[in-house]
Specification:
The protein is an all-alpha fold. It has one domain: Amino acid/polyamine transporter I. The chain starts with a helix and ends with a helix.
């Protein structure tokens, strides 16, 4: 068991990056506002995004290079588009996850320092871990965090179900007005994660191979499947918690990071009891901290690699420079959106959904091309799911744009 746990890596990093805002915030909000009515959207988006996420570690371990190297082989224009999209969205994404993490820390450890100071503290801790520990520490830390969150969420759901006196309605709903449609798109935008995380996956898979020569393409897919399946189970769990505790209660989640964090932890303690306040609070904080940490590692890692490929030049301190740029932009945006967490998350998640077709098409073309060994190109089934996924992502994006 321990032997296999040590071999696991990028799949759990994926889960750590995914199980954050999409689950703690968006899934609980979906349950609170729609009951179990949006489970169809959660399952569909997992099915249709699956191939494009899986192609990241599959391509990386089969070729020994990241998706970014593959993008360059498809044409410098593809890599340039990625560079521009990432630069335009990475600050908003980082701020969205950091603002929730700071809110949880503020709620758990008191208001002896402000939310702004908590943001600086959290980002500083992340920097120390990434600069001193690099990938290996990130890999080991994530295994503990994911196990802790999974156990605490399953227990909370079980307790909430045992305390529930009414039958849970499984009637599915399709949002109708523009606000509900906007939430649906936002919900699917980061469920289970933005599609550019597939690129992070490929970079992490390369790092894992450096430390573990047995990390083959077959095991990389297995590793990814474990992380991906956990995001489905926990996503349904968070929707169920929001539905059981807040649906039809007259309560709504606050747009303020601090107030939302209090409501989130209270949602758990209503199921488990007051004794669980610290345990659940720490689990939620570590979950969001893991997302903050993985995004702070991945975006600079990807931008450094992209810069080197675009300019045919090695930047020795490129990773550190991009971390500094990302943190500066995050703090600047944070001060403007401190009391508007809900708006910030909506912007970030909608942008992620609207850019998803680009990543889906690029990943699919690359995995089917001559640049991928024949043995690791998609099966007929994966071809079918890929085509359906691309049509789904494009169709929903058009539907959203016309509903504005």
């Amino acid at each position: 068991m321990i032997k296999y746990l040590k071999k696991l890596g990028p799949g759990l990093l994926f889960a750590g990056a995914a199980i954050g805002v999409s689950h703690l915030v968006q899934s609980t909000r979906a349950g609170a506002d729609f009951g179990m009515g949006l489970v169809w959207a959660l399952l569909l988006i997992h099915i249709f995004k699956y191939p494009f996420f899986q192609y990241g570690p599959r391509y990386a371990t089969a070729t020994g290079e990241s998706l970014l190297d593959g993008y360059k082989k498809l044409g410098k224009g593809v890599l340039t588009i990625y560079y521009l999209i990432t630069f335009a969205t990475m600050f908003t994404i980082q701020t969205a996850v950091t603002i929730v993490t700071a809110g949880l820390a503020y709620t758990l450890f008191g208001d002896f320092v402000s939310l702004e100071i908590w943001t600086v503290i959290i980002l500083s801790i992340c920097i120390v871990i990434l600069v001193l520990g690099r990938y290996k520490l990130l890999d080991n830390l994530m295994k503990i965090i994911i196990i802790l969150l999974t156990i605490s969420t399953i227990v909370a759901v079980a307790m909430a179900l045992s305390n529930n006196k009414e039958a849970v309605s499984l009637i599915q709903v399709l949002p109708e007005n523009s606000l509900e449609i906007a939430f649906l798109i936002a919900f699917m935008g980061w469920m289970p994660a933005p599609l550019d995380v597939s690129i992070w996956q490929s970079l992490w898979a390369i790092e894992k191979q450096k430390n573990n020569k047995d990390f083959s393409p077959k095991f990389a897919v297995f590793d990814f499947n474990i992380g991906y399946f956990s995001t489905i189970v926990l996503g349904i769990g968070f929707v169920l918690l929001g539905s059981l505790i807040m649906y039809n209660s007259g309560e709504t989640f606050s747009a303020s990071a601090g107030d939302f964090s209090v409501q989130l932890i209270e949602m758990y303690t209503k199921s488990l009891g007051n004794w669980a306040y610290i345990v659940i609070g720490v689990a939620a904080l570590t979950t969001m901290f893991s997302t903050t940490l993985t995004t702070l590692d991945a975006s600079p890692r990807a931008m450094q690699k992209t810069s080197e490929l675009l300019f045919n030049k090695t930047f020795k301190r490129g990773y550190l420079i991009w971390i500094a740029i990302l943190i500066s932009g995050t703090i600047a945006i944070y001060f403007f959106f401190l009391s508007e967490m809900k708006t910030l998350i909506m912007i970030a998640t909608i942008l992620s959904f609207l850019t998803a077709p680009f990543y889906a098409i690029a990943n699919y073309i690359l995995i089917c091309s001559k640049h991928t060994p024949k043995a690791w190109r998609p099966s007929r089934f994966m071809h079918t799911i890929s085509w359906l996924g691309i049509l789904f992502l494009i169709g929903f994006s058009i539907w959203y744009l016309f509903s504005l």
